[in-house]
Structure formats: C-alpha cells, structure tokens
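Hey,
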Amino acid sequence: MESNHPPLPYFTHDNPYHEKLKTFENFVLRDNEGENYKGKWNQEAFKRQAPLILEIGSGYGHFMRDYCSKNPSVNFVGMDYKFKRSFNLAKKLSTLQEENFFYLRANATRVDCLFGESEIDKVLYFFPDPWPKNKHKKKRLFQEEFLKKVHKVLKPNGKFFIKTDHEEYAEWMKGILMESSLFEIEMMSFDIRSDFPDHFLSSFKTKFERIFLEKGIPIKGFELTCLKD
C-alpha cells in the first residue's frame, strides 16, 4: 500500500501524535495528505478495483479491524480526527495481515476534499458525538451541509448507514433527512434490534454499542440510498 506520490503540505500541529503517526505512513494519511488520492483511491491507493467503503469516526477501531479482517475483498478507509486515539488504532491496524485499508487522521467536514465525486460505495457513521447541550448543537457533524458532502462523494444508489444511541440526535437526523431530497430512507428505526434483527446494522456490536445495550438503551439506525440523476 505504498504511495508513489509526494505528500501534499500538511497542517501544522503541536500535538506530538501528529508526528508519531508518520511511523505508519504506509497506510496512515494525515490532514490533507489523502487529497493525493482524491478520485483515484481504488486505482492508485489500493491498486485494485473493489467496493470502496468509508467509515467516518472509526474511534477505537473495533469495527474497522473486525470488518477488514472478515471482508478482505473490500477497500476500506477509516477516518477520525483525534490524535492519540488515531495513533493507538494505527498500532493495532499495523498487526493485521490484510492490506485492504487506509486510515485518515482528518476532519470529516473535509470529506469532499479527500474523495472524488461519486467515488464511494458505502459510508458508515456509527455513534457520533451527539453534543446534547443546546449551545453545542452547532458542533454536530450531521448537518445539511455535511449531508450534501456525503451525497457528493457517494455513487448513485450508494449506501449511507448510521447508528446512534442518542434519541434526540436521531430525531435531529430524521428531521434533516425528511427535508432533504438527496437520499431515500430505506430503513429508519429507533430500536433496530427489535424492528430489524436481520439487518446489517444489527449484525455487529461496536464497543460503545455494547455499553449502551447493557444499559438497556435501544439503538437507532438509518439506511439511506444516494439519489442522483
């Protein structure tokens, strides 16, 4: 998974983990370094044709590592913006035998800068920070502008899968989606394990999801299909 491109200039950071991530530069790209592959992830990054999957907010990477191991035929890109957590996840990813992944230490608000139009087959967005206080809701990633960016990078009929434990955030997402014509809502549930036990979103449990389920909190989920002319 070596890159043949010189890296683009990256943002200046004081965080020591920014430089430490260079240890894994064969599969980790920081900030705008991923722009080298915009529109050509399969061709030049993975060097093979396969379904391209993006996970926004990979967190501690339990899902990413398990999914990449069980699905070696996909091209998987994980993304998160926290420095230390990204470094710890990169260490774990470096032990995998599979080489079907890259990792972006980058901000998801720049997803349309990192991927080309209609390039991605699936976007996964699991248990984002709900920013529950009213004064913080503007920090929520799931906004109309973010939805437009995801729509841009997804292929026609591409899939957008979402999971959250937070009921009010799920209602927030529902409200934005109901006013949007960019996606068709294929599945929407405020208790996916009861309503859709055989659905993809019910087939696995992330680290955070196990904690929520143990507390008796139902998991909310959406399956969206990208609509394009």
